[in-house]
Specification:
396 residues; 16 helices; disordered C terminus
Length: 396
């Protein structure tokens, strides 16, 4: 499906780039997980409703589109290390801004900066690694995902350790890591040649555009559901009587289960076709989210959801590349759709909480997962019927 990496590409992802990339994924993972356990404190500090405080997640997610756009426009000039490193530095500055923000508008500005950096960092590093490696591509992407998981786990765990009232300590800690790793990647980009520019891909050819829209909707619903769980799990558990510290710790527990599911479930992804596995995972996720509606089983339901949904993203991405290859514009559109989902769903859940209470959280998340399951089931039938071959991937 993809052309083997040239020596120039491989040289651009040497030891320094590998270390810097993995380190950059840690604050990126923390960035998506830190908001959830901090929402109750932010709401109390600035006297906000659930719908209003949920805007901090929406600001992060919407601004992720800016980061993806910046990466797309930059293309292969400058070096991907420079673009990704700049994204990590921006992410670090955003986290630091949230940590020290004296007002709610500045907090939203910090979240927007964080999201912008997040978009450029995550998309840039994923595609850079996918192009720089052939035999070891899956291994490198998996270890990067593990680094993301480290941040997603340690972020809320640190909030729980210092107390939600001192969430700024956690944001500042990961801000420093983002600034340091981003600076290192920028230095790598300054010292190594950039890969050649790839020509644009014709996405609308051979009836691919409707399929592209289907994949975008599927990923948007998935990322929105993941962000909704990360953002509102703590609020839901607090509403059920858990302490803020315990709720923050269980948010970390969700990400531990998520990382575990991605690790131990990898063999399953190799044995079951993506078009069958993705819908099944979504439906199983919807069922496990329904378990969280039972107060005594809410924690277990969220942990089970983390295990079940963990494989959706890598499996959906693998399925996508079987149909489209890895043209940069297609990857950018796919990730952009994910950002739209995470920008819309969490604030929407916050508005529902204002209307009917915290009980709306698991029901709305389960509904989103079920719709995604039905959508991807139909998408699988469409792809199978079309019998499309992968779109040619430009040489990098």
């Amino acid at each position: 499906m993809t052309d083997p990496p040239t020596s120039q590409d491989a040289a651009g992802m040497g030891p320094g780039a590998l270390v810097g990339s993995h380190l950059a994924f840690v604050p990126a993972g923390a960035a998506v997980a830190l908001y959830g356990p901090s929402l109750p404190e932010l709401a109390a500090r600035y006297a906000l409703s659930s719908g209003e405080v949920g805007l901090v997640i929406g600001a992060h997610s919407a601004a992720t589109l800016l980061g993806i756009l910046a990466w797309t426009l930059a293309g292969a000039r400058p070096h991907p290390g420079t673009v990704s490193g700049g994204g990590a530095v921006t992410l670090g500055l955003g986290l630091l801004t949230v940590a020290i923000a004296p007002t709610w508008p500045i907090t939203l500005l910090g979240a927007a900066l964080t999201g912008t950096g997040f978009g450029a960092t995550v998309v840039g590093l994923n595609l850079w690694a996918a192009r720089a490696y052939d035999r070891h591509r899956v291994t490198v992407l998996a270890t990067m995902s593990a680094a993301f998981g480290v941040g997603a786990v340690t972020g809320p765990a640190l909030v729980g350790a210092v107390g939600p009232a001192s969430f700024g300590v956690a944001f500042s800690t990961f801000a420093l890591l983002g600034l340091g790793s981003g600076t290192g990647l920028i230095l790598v980009g300054a010292r190594t040649p950039a890969p050649p520019v790839s020509p644009p891909a014709a996405l609308a050819s051979r009836g691919r555009l409707p399929l592209m829209v289907g994949f975008m909707l599927g990923l948007g619903l998935y990322v929105g559901t993941e962000a909704g769980i990360a953002g509102w799990l703590a609020t839901h558990l607090i509403g059920l009587g858990r302490s803020p510290e315990a709720a923050a710790s269980w948010t970390a527990g969700f990400w531990i289960a998520f990382t575990l599911g991605r690790t131990v479930g990898a063999p399953l992804a190799h044995r079951v076709a993506e078009r069958h596995l993705v819908p099944a995972l979504f439906v199983a996720g919807a069922l496990s989210l329904l378990v969280t509606t039972l107060p005594g089983l809410a924690v277990a339901g969220y942990l089970l959801t983390g295990v079940v949904l963990a494989l959706v993203f890598p499996t959906l991405l693998s399925w996508f590349t079987r149909v489209f290859g890895q043209p940069p514009i297609a990857v950018a559109l796919l990730f952009a759709a994910g950002s739209v989902g995470s920008a819309l769903l969490p604030p929407g859940i916050g508005a529902l909480v204002d209307l009917v209470g915290v009980g709306a959280i698991p029901w709305s998340l389960a509904a989103a997962a079920l719709v995604a399951g039905l959508l991807t089931f139909g998408l699988g039938r469409r792809v199978s019927a079309a019998r499309l071959t992968p779109a040619p991937t430009p040489s990098a």
